[in-house]
Each structure stands twice: as structure tokens, then as C-alpha cells.
Amino acid sequence: MAAAVFFAAANLFALPGVQKTVPDASGEYVYYRDFSFNRESYVGFLYYDDSTYEARYYAPATEALPAKNIDLLFSAAQKNGRLEMTGERFVVPPQQDDVAIVNYIHDLVYELSGRRAKLLEPPLVDYEKAAAPFMQAGVFVSEDYEAFGGHVQMLYDEAVPIFNLKKIVDYSGRDVFVAATIGQIESSKDSSFAEFVPTQNYGGGRKSAQIKSAKKETLSFRAEVGKNAALVQSVLADKNWSLAGQSLWTLGDSAIVSLQTLALPEDAADGQAKLAARLLRLFALSKGGAYCDLSALDVHAKGAEIKISSRTYNPKTKKNITDIKTLRAAASNLYGCFSLAIYTDDYQANRGYFDKMAKSYSCMVEKN
Prior knowledge:
Layout: E1 3-4, E2 12-13, E3 24-25, E4 28-34, E5 42-49, E6 52-59, E7 68-79, E8 82-92, H1 99-117, E9 139-145, E10 150-156, E11 165-169, E12 175-184, E13 216-224, E14 229-238, E15 242-245, E16 248-251, E17 255-263, H2 272-284, E18 291-292, E19 298-302, E20 305-314, E21 319-331, E22 334-343, H3 344-349, H4 351-359, E23 362-367
Parallel strand pairs: 1-17
Antiparallel strand pairs: 2-3, 4-5, 4-12, 5-6, 6-7, 7-8, 9-10, 10-11, 11-12, 13-14, 14-23, 15-16, 16-17, 17-22, 18-20, 19-20, 20-21, 21-22
């Protein structure tokens, strides 16, 4: 049986004084586009454990200014139910004129953790009811925040690590602090947090073409899920696809389709909103040097089905990938998962073809 068990309980934490139903895992991070600066600027926070964090300020180079990079590790402890910074060490030292930015990072840590701690309930979003796009759906909280112009709306969603903050909207309705990507470093050698760069749309290196018509074919995978039952998944496709593994097919060098069986722990499916938040966190995390563009993330939930569409960009390979996943409950804590990864240019040139394929996904338990 090909299965993936996720949501392991080890190394899961939460900010001091904060209750979460979707705890943060070691290595998870979030980057925000910060519009309070006169130049394009980003602030990122990385979570190692309940007492160790990393914060980074990054501003890309312009014609007039060189890139600016400030990176610091800091320790923290809980004091009176709130986060208290207890020490820091610079990974990338600031310049003499960067003292104001360092102080600003300190203020952000205290302000964002303190404001998150005031929430009485974890900000779970019911995506079955949410009609707004991902970056507009969540729990809005009115606050006075002088650094962002006074009266603001802060949008929260547990799918976003650490502060659960998606964005801050000022009194005029303008986004002033917006989550750009979330991710997770996978080892001490993983430099994806330290090397984050903003959204890139790569194109021109490959020529997209319309997919030629071919004889219809069903891609299917059967996995034993007990002595007397099997999970059967299928998707309608054609002879353009080639079998590349037990449950893996490729469309030339353009796309990959897989059919997976996901076995969840007993508490993982405890409510659709909680499950959606955990799945979003799992599938939207940037990994392997490819960053998920949260502005392009889309999620739809209906009954026992969750659909997640994301887009990543990789500064090193100069590739944009669109990823579409459909997860469907087949039995208690057992899900089937259809996954399609494709070059974004190819997806846009053949969107009808791929969307139709995704909609044909079938998943059911059959008795032996």
C-alpha cells in the first residue's frame, strides 16, 4: 500500500500565550511584504522551537540602491503569558544606518505576538462557507496600530504559521502588510529562508503547445487498505500519458500526475475547518528552494472533498509550477489524493484540458 501519514506530533509548538489547533512545526516560516517602507521590502520569521526564532529583513536591489539583508536569531521565553525576547545574535550583521530597521523588527515581534495572543479562539476558517479568495478569507480583527496608520483590520488564518496573520489592511482599505509565502526548511543545510526572493514569473525558456488529441485512457491505482478492502482511485486521461511508477504518470517533461493514499491520525479529521487548515499548511509550504506564491493560492471545500491549487516559483531553476490537488474522504481518516504538477505556461495554454482531467477524479473503497 502506498500511503503517507502526516501531522506527526513531534516537534510541534506554539507562540507563548497562544492557543492553536494547528501547531507550528520546527523550521516553518512566513514572509510578509511590508508596504510601510519607501522601497520594496519583506520581513520573514522562522520558528525553530518554543524558545528560538529567526527574523530577516530583505529589500531587493534597485537601479539606485543595493540589496539590503538583515538576519538575526533571537531567543524568547514566556513572561506573564506573552513572548519576551531574551537574547539575539546576528546572522547577517546590520550596517550602522540599519539600527531603525532592527528596532522595527523587535517591535514587530512584540506587536504581532501580543495581538495574536489576544484572540480568544484559534482563527480557523471554514472554507466550505468562505466565498472569498484565500488571501481575503479569515478572521478580521479591528485594531489600532500606529506603525500602519492607526485604525487597521488584521486578517488571521491558522493555515499561516507562527502569528497566523495573513495581512493588515489600513483605514483606507489598502493592504500594508501581506503574507507573501510560507515554507519550511528541511535541515540545517537548507538555505531557503535566508535566500528568499519575491515572486518571479519565469517564462520564455520553453515553448508551450496545445496538447494533441489522443485515444482516451483511464489512469487508475488500487491500494489495499485492509484484509477485505481496497481504495480505488482513477482519473480520465488519454494515451498522451506514460506510466512512470506504481501510481505516477508523466506527460512528456511538462506534467506529472500521481494518485496517493493518505492515512491520517485519529484526530486529524476532527472537523472540516481544522483539516483544511492542516492540509493547506502541508501543501502550501515552500520547500526545496521553490516558493509558494500565496497570492495565487486557491482552496475550495465541499463536504468530504478539498481542492487546493497553488503556484510556485524557483529562482535557481527559473521555473514556475502550478500544482492542483484534490483530496477526497474515502473512509474514516482515509483520503485519496489526486495531484497534478505542471509548468504554469503549459497549464495556462491547456487549462481546459487539465481542469477537465482534475474534475474527473474518482475515489472509492471497494470490498474484496
